[in-house]
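This part of the workshop introduces the protein records we will be handling. Getting from the letters to the tokens is the skill we practise here. An example says more than a description, so a record of this kind follows:
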Amino acid sequence: MAKPPILVHTIAALRREIARYRKNRETVALVPTMGALHRGHLALVREGQKRADRVVVSIFVNPTQFAPTEDFGSYPRTIKKDIEALTEAKADLVWAPSPATMYPQGFATRLAPEGAALAGLEDKFRPHFFGGVATVVAKLFTQVTPDYAMFGQKDYQQLRVVTQMAKDLDLPLKVIGMATVREKDGLAMSSRNVYLSELERRHAPVLYRTLKNCAARIKAGEPIAMVLEEGRMHIRQAEFAVDYLEGRHAATLAPVATLKDGPIRLLVAAKIGTTRLIDNLGV
């Protein structure tokens, strides 16, 4: 039977374990999560194991990246199942702080990222989001002091923001972006997929199919604006409310007009029922 990962809830306990790794000259990979783990998260753990001697998984539902109208209270919390999955995956350490540990009384410092964080994508619809993400991720990087930090590409704008933040703050680690893990029908794995009704789940793969179709047409030389507008119409026909379907420069997330402005990343966010889904794909 696999040995469960060490579970720590305090900064002092975390630092003791990290110090033990460093004393043995072991490298560390961090997989930041909000729990409700799925195969996408476990793929990040496996990649971390390829790159480092130890893998630390953080589980923290970060209140500062949720607006009052969003699903912080109902966000799935499955710590027992998460520990079981991480035991099977042979993760070394789980860092599961409380909100009071991460944001003690009197906490007064928050990051305000710019650049990709102000690209008019997620930030347009969730203006609070990237400040909360950047702040908590900077804290996790400071607490764990990893050599590598593993993120999925599904949250592509977040990946660009975190990568730039680590670079700008001269943090001695490498941010690794891993390809999105998908269901057999193409739906990007997400902890929020559990919110989908049976009918909504059948419609959900239209996002990925539309991304693939748009990417192929743009690569073939069709006008980007026309392709994306037809893509939005197609998504709406599948009973989604579209927040955005955009083509952006893959590194900066600046708008692009032609294939020559690339490399191009297509990004989509849309709501079906009460569930908001995001996805992206390179051209």
Notes: The chain has a mean pLDDT of 96. The domain at 6-178 is CATH 3.40.50.620 (Rossmann fold).
